[in-house]
Design goal:
Elements lengths: L1 H8 L2 H18 L4 H35 L8 H30 L37 E3 L2 H5 L12 E4 L3 E2 L15 E10 L2 E7 L2 E4 L4 E18 L3 E4 L2 E13 L5 E3 L2 E4 L4 E3 L2 E2 L2 E4 L3 E2 L2 E5 L2 E3 L2 E2 L3 E3 L4 E2 L2 E5 L2 E3 L2 E2 L3 E2 L2 E4 L2 E4 L5 E3 L2 E2 L3 E3 L1 E4 L2 E4 L2 E3 L2 E2 L3 E3 L7 E2 L2 E4 L4 E3 L2 E3 L10 E2 L1 H4 L13 E2 L7 E2 L5
Parallel strand pairs: 1-2, 2-4, 3-4, 4-7, 5-7, 6-8, 7-9, 7-10, 8-11, 9-12, 9-13, 9-14, 10-15, 11-16, 12-17, 13-18, 14-19, 15-20, 16-21, 17-22, 18-23, 19-24, 20-25, 21-26, 22-27, 23-28, 24-29, 25-30, 26-31, 27-32, 28-33, 29-34, 30-35, 31-36, 32-37, 33-38, 38-39
Antiparallel strand pairs: 40-41
Helix pairs in contact: 2-3, 2-4, 3-4
Length: 472
Amino acid sequence: MEKATKIQNSDPLKSLRSSIAFYVGKITENENGVTEIKETIQEMKTHLANMDTTLQNLTTELTNTQTQVGSDQNNTKAEIQALKIHEFETKIKQINKEITALKSCACPDSWKTQTNPYKIATTNDLQPTVLPAGPGTGTMQDPYKIATVNDLQKLRTVWGSNTGKYFIVTQDIDLSSIANFTSLPDFNGTLDGNNKKILNLRIDRYYASLFQQIGQGGVVKNLGFENVAIKGNRGAAALATYNYGTVDNCYVTGQVSCSAKYGHSGGLVLYSSTGSIIKNSYSTARVSGSYYSGGLVAVMNKATVENSYSSGSVSTVDSGAGGLVASMTGGVIRQSYATGSVSGKYVVGGLVGLVNNPESIIENSYSSGSVSALGMAGGLVGNLSGKIKNSYSSGSVVSKQSRVNRLGVLAGEYGSEGTIIKSFGKSQSGVSNTRGQKTDAELKDPSTFSSWDKNIWKIESGKYPKLKVFLN
């Protein structure tokens, strides 16, 4: 009986379950790239082999137990046999189930990535495993499911209190039946769009966006907005008016506009505030406003924008227009670009209109769209009081009036703390600020960028440099 007791008290699955949770968590949380994910998969494959060995051992123990139960003096053979057979059959079924689940998420061939102009493969591109049946319970393992317009509307009612809750979009949602959508209240949970789309979002309100605010700790990822028609009086954006959290792998197409004096527009987000992050995202939307409007974000304050781009046109009636961001106060823009045309009166830039803080950093980024303004405009930045590093502009800069008023190949106006480090703009006539000037041929000559990080940039003779993160 002593041996049988030892077998019964041992739990070979305990450490295996802990390891499984570790590896699955590692895949979910890892955002350091495909290389590390592949290394994790190799570890998981090794672990699967160990699990198979454990399964064989359990089967052997079951056989041995069935032959040894007869020696027990205190229990009948039938009682012990029934006990041990049930115990081991339960363990064998459970471990088989866990092996099957682990194999389904460990196989690289089962990965599915979205069809998207944005080319980066990240952990967010992986499709989720099979979800439990039912509407969900709001946990990470069993998120609330959003499949219909009515489900989406629950975010203002039964799911309005969503801090720490998880949601997943399981079907594309067409909002064309709603002529003027009312923005959803503040969101503080985690919403995985599952590479699904919000279609035909139409809003015409004072502040217009899907969410009024993404709170600190809130996450919205893997969600597309297609064919939006968003009009704001004071502010407009597709996803959120205020972002204090994280926006990851989201995009917008269509049109975003704002009509009132001093009204702002941003393709995806209106204001991205301290500590917030926007990454792996893009906008092809046409963006227009009266004042400070940007292709992806209108105004960012001590926020981060990385691995993102905008290709739609941006225009303002008054001042402040940027191909990617209109106004930047602190924070960082890295490995991002803009290609759309940008126009306004003053403070107009191909990438950013106004960089008004010495702690602001633009690095490893570029713009290629045309810029037109009355003055204080530049190929990359309109007015610079921060730092530009390892970046360039290849677009034209044109004055809307006969005289040239603070137009620059890279930046139109430099504050006392404006700094350029190994950054360049295309030389052209009709500009007053030639700082960082290079000819078109020099911008296509690898020697111009000899000190740039070749892990970040693809630099070829006869071509403008490109960011590798956006290439296949």
